[in-house]
Structure formats: structure tokens, C-alpha cells
TrEMBL record:
Pfam families xref list: AAA_5
Protein name: AAA family ATPase
VWFA domain boundaries: 559-738
Signal peptide: none
Species in which this protein is naturally found: Cytobacillus mangrovibacter
Annotated region (Disordered), positions in chain: 389-435
Entry-linked InterPro entries: ATPase_dyneun-rel_AAA, NorD/CobT, P-loop_NTPase, VWF_A, vWFA_dom_sf
Amino acid sequence: MNAKKGGNACIQKEYYLSPARHLTDVELELVWKKPLSHKISVEEIRICKEVKRNWDRGEMKIANILLEGDAGSGKTQLAKALSADFGLPYTKVTCFADMDKSDIIGAILPVISSERLEKMEPTDQIILKALYESDGFQSTIKILMDVLGVTQEQAVWKMKQLLKLVEENTGEEVVEYRFYPSEIVRAYQNGYLLEVQEPTVIRDAAVLMALNSALESDGSINLPTGTINRHPDFIAVITTNRSYVGCRPLNEALRDRIQHVEKMDLPSKEVMIERAIAKTNYRNEKVLDVLADIIILLDRTARANAIKGVAGMRSFFFWTDAIAEGASVKESIYHKVIYKITTDAEEIKLLEEALKSQGLFAKLDNMENEQKDYLDAIEIRTEGKIDAVDLPSENGSDENGIPLKKSDDSDQCSSDISDESAVMESSDLGERGTPVYHQSVPELMSEDLKQKERAFRKKLNQEAREIVSKSIHKGVKLIVHRPDFLLENQREYESLSKELMPVVQEIAKRTIPLLDYENATELAKKQYYGSKFQADNVAYQDFRYFSRKLPPNESPSLVVGLRVDESASMSAFGRLEAAKRAVLAVYEFCQICDIPILIYGDTADASKLEQMSIYAYTDFEQKNVNDRYRLMGIRARSNNRDGMALRIIAERLALSPQKTKLLISISDGQPKAMENYTGSYAVKDMQQTISEFERKGVTFLAAAIGQDKEVISQIYGKERFLDITDLKQFPAQLVQIIARYL
């Protein structure tokens, strides 16, 4: 984002949209105050001019703005700056996958008597009192976050629990209810500037429809207390990351209501240095120039090697600040930059080699002496003026966006592999114009194998559609994908496997002797010949009177199916990473023990033409050594239609010859997909599917790794429920569970 030279005064009040409007004291407090470190950007000037020019032009009025770009490119900083420029109170709402309409319009809460309130737990009393004493300005979720000091998702869970508790404590008495408007409603009704962060993660279609309605130029919102109309001063600024894990393309209807879009790019080196000076007041531009080069190089190296950490503006600011305070330039790079990117020894070595190859480590050595001289000069002048090297101002707080750049495994949003895609080399351009190539494995590139893959994918699609043709999902548009893999997928696998394989191999080492025993002693009955005569079979008169031992080279009598929920909410709290690690561990364990395994991911509502997406990462019908790399493509995508995915996988397992058929579902939440596949309807479908295929010999287990553990337990039943509390232990735990079924 390019910055315009100059201070803040040049834009102050020039773009006020309603100069005659009188704000209350509370509203004045909400108008953002630009810190001294704020630098006016060309994007800010452009938006201000466009909005001001069209403000009184009726249908040409610009009041819905989209800021789209990488994490940390300054989107929120710009949204706040527009609040100051337009003279409007600023507020925001951060969207999350499981938002429902109450998060858009507000909540209706029962008010219980003080006598009953006193009988409740102290924490619940504090929460309810805070809600009852609030003026309704903040959303209920925000109040809980402030009172309890918890995350937004935890606050949502606590609110659901609290509503249930309040209902139990009202007894037979007449209950009074109070409506608490959301921040969206307050901004909409009172004419504030509202930042809507990441609406791309929302799964519920009803929530998106409510947002769409609110963004109409003459829109209205229906509340339990009546209908409210859009205030003429209301401005919506939607901020969203490009290609971010868990996000999908912005809803088409929502995008259509946008009147101005800014593509937010990360700043140039010159702007990085300018911002660092403003933030830290450290003015040695020669040093800053080298630090900026290092940040840029480390970021590029991390991307190129699929290292998931980030080297961005925040690292730059804090590293600069540490050096300004006298920290060693070379030592502090590890604590302020490199260890934020990774603590893996091999990955650190890659970053160090990149710095050495560009001569930047040598420059750091030279800067040690220069920095010492600079600090000595400051110390000498401490008896006189030290304005030029003043400590960072408290007012210059870190309001700026932090460029947490998208890692190579970030979600590319929705389904990006068509039914007709083939395994081939790609000349697609990456995010910075660099070519991205598919894994160049000679045997994969042969025409015969490509044809075989296409035929197999076609077969999977035909079979899956046939499986659901007589179920409630028969009208759902389904595509089964056979994902390709990239070089970064292979690198990610190699990185993860180094950590996981020792654990997997140890469990396999203990398991294989059991398999040898099973294979050596288990008898195949009703054979025409064998080592043991079975007199009870003579009655059938079919000459199958013998049984024989299974030879040692026959596979174990277990087949495993893993279903991975690839809904958008899996991107939160490290769930996706935990699921990917667990899947990799199970896959390698099954390879060592020669256990047939099928691993499918699924998501719903990728598009109108693709209402259900199945991703066949591995399949026991067509084994491929490169399947392990495909698994690294598991990602958070959209909604989830669990019953349909379970039915497709369960049918594949039911038809397999193995005696024990184990289906494990890894999920973080309850089913939710368009149209109306949610609530009791979806739960009933899942339970019927489980019951139907258990009669066919399929054993179901549910590994719950999210906030809806109680609901998942109710759906699957406690006997099939695995409560995964420690995600770090999840891979080993899952492998051990499978080993017990042998």
C-alpha cells in the first residue's frame, strides 16, 4: 500500500459526510482518532474522494466498500481511518463460520428474578448481571468476551449454555424477555461506519441473506421489536483476505452490492521503512534498509519452502524496536523474526542459508559495530536534547495492519478441481507471478496412468451418485474429485512425517506381531480342501467340508475409512492442522501394516452446480505411492453435509471383503448445508445412515475436535464418540484406536 507524504491535517474534516450532524458523547468516542504513526495512503484518498463526490447523488451513492487483500495489508487500519475522515463512529463485527441470524440482528434473553439469579453459579451471575446492566450497545457475545476474557467462539458456546441454564431456572413463572440488538443493528440504525470482517467464512445461507438485505441502499432489517430502515449515514466496509484458510469467494449477491473495491497490496520497502520510523522513532535508515531486505527475503523463502510461519510488518516493527533499545542485531533476529516463522531446526537452516547466500548475514555482522557506535552516540548526548532518538510514543500504538502473509497451504477457496481435471503439469502463475508446477514424477506423467486416473475418477462419480440416488440426497449435485498434488504438498508431507513417523513406527512395531498371529492362525472355513475337516459342514452336501489357515501374505481382516470434515470452521484453533497430522499418521500406519484404507474429505455448497464435493485422497481400489502427498491438500472450504458423506464412504466399506469395517469421522461441528440441511432434519439423516450401515457390518466412530462435542456425541451415541481434547495427541491416539480393532 503506497503512502502519501504528509501528516493528517490535510485530510481532517475535508471529507466529513454530514457536517451538520451532532454526535452524542458516546458516539464521539467511537470516531477513530488517528495516531501520529498513521500514514495517509493513496487508497484512503481515493475512497474519500469517491464517497464524498457521490454522497448526494441518489442511486450513485457509495456506501458499501470492499477492501480485499493479504492479511496485514492494512485493511482494518484503513477502515478505521475512514471513520476519522468521514466523521462517523466506528464499530466492527468479526464473522465466524457458525454465525446465525441472532449474531446479525441480536439476541432475545429472558430476564429471571433476582431470587433465582442468586441461586446460580457466581460466573453465571456475573454474566447475566453484565447483560442486564448493559445499555444494549454492545452485542451479547462482545459482553461475554469482555467479562470472561474468552474468544468469540468460546463466548458463543457459553451463550448457548447460558440460555439453556436460564430456561431451566425460570420454572413455571411468567418470564419477561429483553431484546439486545447486535452491533450491526446499532450501526445500521444510527448511521455508523461498520467494518464487517471476513464474511467469506459464514456457512449459513440465512445469515448471508440477512447481510445482503442490510446492504441494499434502501434496505431494512426485521427485528423482533419491529422493522428498522438503513440510516442515510451508514457505511459498510467489508474486509476480507485473499486465498485465506477457511474462506470462500465472496458471496456473489453480496459482492454485487459493493460500490467501490480496493485491492490491498503489501507495502513496498520504502513504505515499510517509513512506517517503522513512525512506529518506533528509530531513524537509522541504513540499518532499516537491511532489516527490510531481510524481512522480504525471509518471507519469500518461507513461501517457497512451504514454511507456515510469517515474516511481516509486525516482526519488522518489533525487531526494529528491540534494536533501538540496544538489542544485538544478529541475536534479536531469531527471537523477533525467525522463531516467529518456525522453530524447526531444518526449516531454520533453510532460512539461514537464504540469508547467507544473499550476503545479509554478513551485513548483520557489520551492523553490530555500527549499531554500537549509534547507541554510544545516543548515550553521550543524554545530558542534552535527545528528541531525535526519543523512545517510542505510547500514543503511537500499533494500530497498523500486520502483514501476516498467506502461507503456501492457504485455502484457495471452494472447489477448484473440476470433474474432468487430469494429472498434468501446470503453468499457472502463483500469487507473485511465479510459475507453480505440479509434481513432476515420470510415472505419473505417462498417458496410460493419466487415462487410468480419469477412468477411476469417473467410476467414483458414477458409484457415489448411485449410492445416494435412493436417499434424501438424490437431488444434490455431487462431484467426486481425485485431487492432484504440488511440490509444496510433498515438502509439507516430508516436514510433518519427520515428527510423526517415529510414533507411527513404534505403534506399528507393537502391532505387526499381532497381525502375524492373526494371519497364521485365522481359518478360512467352507473350503474344498484344507488342513482341518469340519464335520458340521457335511450337512450342506456342497463338498466344502474343510477349513484352512490364511497364508501369511494375506491382508489383515480390517479395512479403514477416514472421513474428514472440510467445512470452513475447521480452520479455527489448529483443528485443520491436527486433522491433517492425524490422517497422515493413520495412512502411514495402514501402509506399514498392509491395512486397506480409504480417506475422503468432503464439503458442501461450493457452488450452485456443485452442492456436494467429495475429495478422494486415497482409495484402496487404486493405490498410489503419491497419495500421501495428496493428503496435504486437505483444507477448510465451505459447509458440511455429513449424512451424504457418511453414506458414500460406508457403502464402499460395506462392499469390501474384510471382516472388520471401521469408519472414523473427524469433524468439529454439527451438519449444516443449503438448503435446510441442518438441525433435527440433518441429525435424523445421520442417525439413520449409521443405523443402516451398522446392520451391514460397518463400525462408526466420531472424533470430535471442536466446540460441538456434546452435539456430536448425541448424534453418534456415547459408545461411538471420541472426545479429542488434546489435539497434539490426536495422531497417536487415532492410530492406537485403529490398532485395537485388529
